[in-house]
Every structure is written in structure tokens, then in C-alpha cells.
Amino acid sequence: MDADDHMRYIQMDDLSTGSDSDYTKYWIDWFLNTKGNEYFCEVDEEYILDRFNLTGLNTEVREYQQALDLITDSLEDDLDDEMREQVEKSARHLYGLIHARFIITSRGLAKMLEKYKKADFGRCPRVLCQNQPLFPVGLSDVSYTKTVKLYCPRCEDIYNPKSSRHAAIDGAYFGSSFPHMLFQVYPNLVPAKGTDRYVPRIFGFKIHEIAKQHRWQDAMRGEMEKMWRDRNASDRQLGNGEGSDQQKGGFFWVA
């Protein structure tokens, strides 16, 4: 049974049995158990059913009401395959947007903290961060602009997820504020900033600082030479190339 068939089975078969309190868990359970959705936590039923928490989302999601009904397992419309596919896509998008709002509430922060403690989001690939657990973070709060990244609170840098499934998740489903909000609420969890830095060596000896300075000077010299070549070429194109630079009050770059 593939994922789509499994979801239809949940909606059409399991909803015919059980209590009302169980119904709202089925679609969300399917979504959370789908491979690639491991970064998401379960949004509380009460949060989803409070329409105040969903303010404005109806303008961002197609087939909003049907998508919401699908998430809460109350969809009763008999949809054709094409329409059902659209509603299912909208439901996944809507859940992601609700998720971004939920995880900056006290309840949502607590749920994501548990996942962080278990390193569900992965660990920092930087060797000197000593396997520091990561947080998902968005680079934008606007949908369909940036995919999710992983933030390391020790080196304070971001990384791409290893899994291609995770790398395709919309960053707006986590928002740009989440990890920083969490550390505001739980300041005792802020890891100590690492003081260790990798030191380049040749045969065990540190590379002398003068070598770095020479590389910088070479780079600057190359940039200046290119700038003057471009300027001279531009002057010739404008018919102002006659005479020497000294006659025109120009400057020479001396290596």
C-alpha cells in the first residue's frame, strides 16, 4: 500500500470507528510518519481548532477549508482524483504554515526541545563543534522562497540537511525566529561557544602571519590591476584614450 492509499484508508476506513477525540490524530499521524517529515512535531488539536491561530492563512492556501477539514479528519466531500490531489497538497502546505506558528508557542517549543535533545535534526558537521545537535531554521518567513537549513548554536552557522528529502522542505514551515526564540525561553541550554580553531600547519609548523599578509597583498594587487585595465578599456571605447595617464591626471598602480 503506497502513502496515498494509506492516507485514503485512514480517512475512509478508520474514521468510521473510534471516538471523536481520536479522529483529529489520523491525518497528522500519517503526515508525521511519512518519510522526510521527521523535522515536524505534532501540532496540538486544540491549537488547530482555534481559528484565531490560523488568522490570515486562508489567503495563502488554495482550497483552504477543505485542506483544514482534511487535517482535522472532517472532510466529507466526495472529490475526484484531481481535486483530492490538490486538497492533499494544500493540506500539507497548510500544516507546515500552522507548524511554523505553533513551534514558537510554549507548548511547541517544549515539543521541539525534546526532538533537539534526541538530535532528531542531526548534528553539526563541523568537527570542532563535537557533535552539537542542530535546529531547523528558515532563512525566510515567506513560503516558496528558501528551503530549510540547520542551525548550530555552538558555531552559530547554518548547514544544508544531509537528506535530499529534508533539503526540499520549505523553510517557512519553521520560520526564521524559532531556534533563537527557544534559547530566549531556555537560556540555560545555550551551549558554550567553542574557542578551538583549526590552525593550518606545514610539517607541524604554523604558517607565518606574513604569508597571510602576502596572499592578501597579491589579491589586492590583482583586483587593482583588473580595475585599471577595465577603466582604460572603457576610456578607449569612449574615445578618451589619447595621451598618457600622467597627462590626464591619472594614477599608476605600482606593484
SSE blueprint and pairings:
Blueprint: H1 3-12, H2 20-23, H3 25-33, H4 45-49, H5 64-71, H6 81-102, H7 106-117, E1 135-137, E2 149-152, E3 157-159, H8 164-167, H9 178-185, E4 201-202, E5 205-206, H10 209-237
Antiparallel strand pairs: 1-2, 2-3, 4-5
Describe the structure.
- With 255 residues, the chain is mainly alpha-helical.
- Among the domains are: 26-110, protein kinase ck2 holoenzyme, chain C, domain 1 (Orthogonal Bundle); 119-189, N-terminal domain of TfIIb (Single Sheet), CATH 2.20.25.20.
- 44% of the residues lie in helices and 5% in strands.
- It contains ten helices and five strands; from the N terminus they run H-H-H-H-H-H-H-E-E-E-H-H-E-E-H.
- It has helices at residues 3-12, 20-23, 25-33, 45-49, 64-71, 81-102, 106-117, 164-167, 178-185, 209-237, and strands at 135-137, 149-152, 157-159, 201-202, 205-206.
- A three-stranded antiparallel beta sheet has the order 1-2-3, with no helix packed on it.
- A hairpin with a 2-residue loop joins strand 4 (201-202) and strand 5.
- Helix 5 packs across helix 6.
- Residues 1-24 and 243-255 have low confidence and may be disordered.
